[in-house]
């Protein structure tokens, strides 16, 4: 079966499946196994979004996905592995969008437009999936900075910043622009404080304007 992942644009980072062990899968799964995996992950994501991470049990996911509980166990082993796979699946989908999707998020737009589109897309993702991401942060609050997903975001943003502001410390600027995307902060602002996605993105535009001034 051909690899369904589109090739990265020239000069971009490759999309990597972030398995719990940190290595990409050895081969593509059979079509029926891939279909079951997708159904299980989509059902798990819906459970977390609607009821919170505590609702993520193997039996609940089996019922919600219409698959046997034995299939869920064979595919993912336990709840911890299922949760890790769910986080990685959402991250790989996001990677595919900004590395090989249409502009301005994907290649083909000026770097300033891509950077703004990237921040907005990241805001939408963190707000829409805040329960899932918050649970991941709670499980490993410090390790997330060394996780492949964060490193990939940082590398992509630093690449765009180097194009916009040659000679500046693009790595540091990327870290600072990513700081608002701590899941705990996003949850506090949007759930507890009531800020909308539009307000969150407008504030990001204000921060970005300062970074791009005189660029």
Automatic annotation (TrEMBL):
<dbReference type="InterPro" id="IPR036271">
    <property type="entry name" value="Tet_transcr_reg_TetR-rel_C_sf"/>
</dbReference>
<feature type="domain" description="HTH tetR-type">
    <location>
        <begin position="34"/>
        <end position="94"/>
    </location>
</feature>
<protein>
    <submittedName>
        <fullName>TetR/AcrR family transcriptional regulator</fullName>
    </submittedName>
</protein>
<dbReference type="Pfam" id="PF00440">
    <property type="entry name" value="TetR_N"/>
</dbReference>
<dbReference type="InterPro" id="IPR001647">
    <property type="entry name" value="HTH_TetR"/>
</dbReference>
<feature type="region of interest" description="Disordered">
    <location>
        <begin position="1"/>
        <end position="33"/>
    </location>
</feature>
<feature type="DNA-binding region" description="H-T-H motif">
    <location>
        <begin position="57"/>
        <end position="76"/>
    </location>
</feature>
<keyword id="KW-0238">DNA-binding</keyword>
<dbReference type="InterPro" id="IPR050109">
    <property type="entry name" value="HTH-type_TetR-like_transc_reg"/>
</dbReference>
<dbReference type="InterPro" id="IPR009057">
    <property type="entry name" value="Homeodomain-like_sf"/>
</dbReference>
């Amino acid at each position: 079966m051909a690899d369904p992942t589109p090739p990265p644009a020239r000069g971009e980072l490759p999309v990597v499946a972030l398995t719990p062990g940190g290595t990409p899968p050895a081969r593509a799964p059979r079509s029926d196994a891939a279909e079951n995996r997708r159904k299980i992950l989509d059902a798990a994501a819906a459970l977390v979004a609607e009821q919170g991470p505590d609702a993520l049990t193997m039996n609940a996911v089996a019922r919600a996905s219409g698959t046997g509980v034995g299939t869920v166990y064979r595919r993912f082993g336990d709840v911890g592995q299922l949760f890790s796979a769910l986080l990685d699946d959402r991250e790989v989908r996001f990677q595919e969008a900004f590395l090989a999707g249409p502009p301005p998020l994907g290649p083909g737009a000026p770097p300033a437009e891509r950077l703004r589109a990237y921040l907005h897309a990241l805001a939408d993702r963190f707000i829409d999936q805040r329960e899932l991401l918050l649970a991941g942060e709670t499980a490993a609050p410090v390790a997330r900075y060394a996780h492949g997903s964060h490193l990939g975001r940082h590398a992509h943003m630093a690449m765009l910043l180097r194009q916009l502001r040659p000679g500046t410390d693009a790595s540091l600027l990327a870290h600072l622009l990513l700081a608002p995307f701590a899941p705990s902060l996003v949850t506090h602002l949007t759930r507890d404080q009531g800020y909308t996605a539009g307000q969150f993105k407008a504030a990001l535009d204000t921060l970005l304007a300062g970074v791009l001034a005189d660029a």
